[in-house]
Every structure is written in structure tokens, then in C-alpha cells.
Design a protein that fits this description.
Helix content: 55-70%
Structural class: mainly alpha
Number of strands: 0
Radius of gyration: 14 Å
Distance between the termini: 7 Å
Largest sheet: none
């Protein structure tokens, strides 16, 4: 598995700030909820991968 570029930690932190985990809002459409859930899933996977790399795992 390839490692992330050196600045990946900064990127993940910035994405996490831009798209924080939050509960769906009543005024959101179902489509908006799914789109937000997809963004968060991607960010969560990046966080896990970055943590594994920092801990020497794969």
C-alpha cells in the first residue's frame, strides 16, 4: 500500500474542519444527507489510514 504524501496530515485536518461530523438537519433533503455522509466517510477513512501510517501499521 502506498503511503500518503508528506502534507497529508494538514489536508486531513483541513477537510475535517470544513466538513465536521454532525447530525442531519431537518431542513436537509435526503440527497444532501447522503452527500454529507459520503464526505464524512471519506474523511473518516483518511483519518484511519493516516493514524495507521503514523503508528507504523499498514
Amino acid at each position: 500500500m502506498k503511503t500518503f504524501p508528506h502534507k497529508s496530515e494538514d489536508l486531513v485536518k483541513e477537510l475535517n474542519k470544513l466538513y465536521p461530523e454532525r447530525s442531519p438537519r431537518i431542513q436537509q433533503s435526503e440527497r444532501e444527507i447522503w452527500m454529507e455522509a459520503g464526505r464524512r466517510e471519506l474523511i473518516n477513512q483518511l483519518i484511519v489510514r493516516l493514524e495507521r501510517e503514523q503508528n507504523g501499521g499498514s
